[in-house]
Amino acid sequence: MRRFNFLLYSDFETESLKLMRNPDVTVRSRGVMEKCSYCVQRISAAKIEADKENRPIRDGEVVTACQQACPASAITFGNINDKQSKVTKLQADERSYQVLADLNTRPRTKYVAAVLNPNSELQDAPVEHLPAKG
C-alpha cells in the first residue's frame, strides 16, 4: 500500500521529544510518499534472535504489524524459499495471483482470491466439462 504524508506528524524542534523516538523506525517529514517496508525492523529482530541461537528463522517467527493486527489472520508472511512454509503452500494455490505481474513489475505481494458462490442452486449442480478444442 502506498500513501502520501499530507501532515507533519513529527515535532523535530522540541529537544525533549527527541529521546522518545524509536531509533528502529524512520520518521519522514511531510510530502513523502510512503510504501510498506514489510516491517523491516521486525525482520531484523527475528534475524538477530535466530543468529544468536545459531539457527534459521522459523516459519511464523516474523510477524508484521498488519499481520498482528488482523483478527481474521488474512495476512501471511514468510520465506518462499522454504518449501514447507505456510506462505509457500498458499502461493502454490491455483487461486493466488499478483497485481500487474503480467507487466513484469515483479511485485512482492501475492493475493489468494476467495471463491464465493451466492447462488445456492449451483452449489450441488454437476460440473459439465467443455469439449476439448483441437
Write the layout of secondary structure elements.
Blueprint: E1 2-4, E2 33-35, H1 40-52, H2 65-69, H3 86-91, E3 96-97, E4 111-112, H4 120-123
Antiparallel strand pairs: 1-2, 3-4
Give an overview of the whole structure.
The chain has helices at residues 40-52, 65-69, 86-91, 120-123, and strands spanning 2-4, 33-35, 96-97, 111-112. It is α+β, with helices and mostly antiparallel strands and 134 residues long.
| Unreliable sequence segments | none
Number of strands: 4
- What is the CATH C-level name? Alpha Beta
Q: Sketch the major β-sheet.
A: 2 strands, antiparallel
Q: Tell me what the CATH architecture is.
A: 2-Layer Sandwich
* β-sheet strand percentage: 5-15%
**Net shape:** extended
Rounded Rg: 22 Å
User: What is the element string, with H for helices and E for strands?
Assistant: EEHHHEEH
Continuous helix count: 4
